[in-house]
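#lab-general

N.A. 3:47 PM
ok so I finally got the sequence cleaned up, no stray characters, all 855 residues accounted for. can someone with queue access submit it? mine expired

B.Y. 3:52 PM
send it over

N.A. 3:53 PM
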Amino acid sequence: MKLWNRLLLRLRGGRLEAELNDEILLHREMLEADFIRAGMTPRDAAQAAARQFGNPSAAADFSRDEWSFPRFDAVLKDLRFACRLMLRNPLLTCAAALTVAFGVGANTAILSMLEIVLLNPLGMRHTDGVMVARVRIDKIQMRRAPDSGVEFREIQSMPDAFCAAAAMENRAWNYQNGGQATRLLGQAVTPDFFRVFGEDPALGRFFAPEDRQEDQHSVVLAYAMWQSQFGGDPSAIGRKIVLDDQPYSIVGVAAAEFLFPAGAQAWIPLVLSPARLQQRGMNMDLAVFARLRNGVSPAQAVGRVNRYVAGLLASTADLAKVGYGIELDRFAVYVAGDLRGPLWLLWAAALVVLLTGCANVAGLLLTRSASRRREIAIRLSVGATRWQIVRQLLLESLLLGMAGGVAGLCMAKLAVSLLTRVSLPGRQLLALVSLNHRLLLYGVALAMISGLLFGLVPALQLLRESQTSAMVRSRRRRFQDAFVTAQVAGAFVLVVTTVLLLRSLWAVQQIQPGFDPQHLTTAFFTKPKNDPGFQDRLQSALQASPGVESAALAYPVPFDGGGLTSGFSIRDRQRQPGEPEWHGEAYFVSPEYLRTMRIPLLRGRDISETDTAAAPLVCLIDRRLAERFFPNQDPIGQQISMYRDWARIVGVVGTVRATTLEEGSRPVVYYPLVQVPFFTQSAAVVRSGLSAAKTIREAVRRTNGSVPVFDVRTMQERIGESLGIRRILAALLSVFGGISLLLATIGLYGVIAQVVSERTQEIGIRMTLGAQPAQIVAQFARQGLRAGLFGLALGAVAAVYTQSWLASSLYHTQSLDVATFAAVAAGILLLLLAAVWWPSRKASKIDPQAALRYE
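B.Y. 4:20 PM
back already:
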């Protein structure tokens, strides 16, 4: 019968069923009438008609097969039965569903971050062929540093490897919008920037050569900026916006999918001076991107760049001595940055949790199998096939998995919203994370696979037990022991990793940054161009604010990405042959900065009010620079040149860790803020026992209402962000490890409890014959601990193998720390002892007479 007719008949539902029953009854009555006419009695005729017609239920089923979907109906019946079974065992259902939910939720949430960060960076479409060039200087252990204009020019000169190259430099502007000043984040880019990424504008055009002229000021807006500021109006092309009091003409709008860099709102043309294109190491603040030419692989491009660098080192002795190089990375690696390793580690840990959970649920289903042996045997005896039994059992498992999957996707949604709010380096990147349709399908598929994983072995085992239950108890126990072994091994690996990360985090937190971060608030602002006395008035306003102990201005501030790096020279001093180029960090500070930060002054004097823009250039150096470059002399009075002409050293201060706690800073030079007025933004640093965020905003508003304030955070928040990756790793792995350990403990307890239940009569006989309770406890403890100890041994081997991946995330902690391994093993062993002791103790207290009557 055609599918359409089947569907139409299916829609008739109960009416068709009534007609079928009436038709069967009519056929029976017609047969009886024929037999009566042949001379039979009514009773004999009814019996003869019944024999000839056959089983009415079978006839009805045969008829239904013609106008229904028998296989589909059979699956529906199995699903209804599985639902009733789940409702009949709510504890098992909840335990299994929650176990799967946590594994699926954790995997989906972390994979959503991996996708936006590494697998499909920023959701952009054409980044597979994009490479990023960065500088390496082995002598000073500098890896993946920003480029100067020279590296950009050299990458551009390799058309055999790259079809396009572009450079990018960070920008931030004051944006006047309706009389209110806000901060606008963006980038200055060379003309081929959008071509490198294979992008087309959503509106207008991208940059052309004429946009690089001095009198031409063009801007390309991000799609979100265009929507929020111009309401998506196409007539925005050609209009002007004011950035840093300079009008820029809007020439185009980027596509909605183009989100690089994360948080960028506009792009302007980048013009590199001839000096920047000729002086290697000058203004190393460029990011250089290149698109591979068709047919060129990443490995071939790396080889091309390495050959060029090798020739360069052969002809330039100074570069060879410092170990200069250019590193090429895929765009995904550049975007991921420090998040790459931690996210892969978390995903691996989430997979371990999921597999541990599947093993636990499989053990629970095996434990329940004893109560279903009779049911399966009856179903087989009345004609059910093996496939029908396996299908029924797998549908039950899939239903459990799907229930856990739905809950897991809800958990993933919540987890993504929480993780994207964590204060981490790269938080703007994580803000783009969301659960799209691909990730939802991944979560559903993971739930279904989980259901098959934990349902297949119990289904096949239960089918065997229904026929030869006396022969397969040991086989079922071997499966249960294998599941327990896997759970203990996974838990051991996760707990060892967690303990090592916690020890490393504790070691980092003990490091002193060199200043007092307590009660210290920082906030950035953009300096107004037409208000030269703004900074002096602002510092006075901050000092006079209620509750302020001291205040200063600086650029940059510690734990805001580090100081500004540059080479420097010392008057009457030449670098020795083979000595690497002298590099250091520079901070530009106002008077009171040392007092506000509580950085100790070791020698000389502080920066004072007399160090004005018209006064001779002076500076402070930190102890690290003094000890390295002036080991046997007094640095006071010496002269150093970094950002301007020669500056006289007037003081030596303590060393400050300014990037991360675990990373020591480079030599540092402090200049008076007013003597090096190169930078468009600065920061207020306020020490106060009260919350100073509102104080800073009010002081800036009173001083100049057109100046935007941004990035207002306490110094402890900035330090906490630098520790964010370590903290989130330790926290999530603690959760994962704890759940895995709990599942392993429950699994072992379930195995021993099941064995005790099955051997109740045997225990009664043995106790009747004189066995002691201690012997009973010891027997079951040995049986349970055998799987646990084997799991510990397997976990130790796996942990040794995986700890090499963890070495880069540890600080002053050995990845193969014997004490940690031994302590974790001892702790897990104690939990396993507790898991086997309770059912073993219960077995030792069985009443022999009650046990002999047990069935």
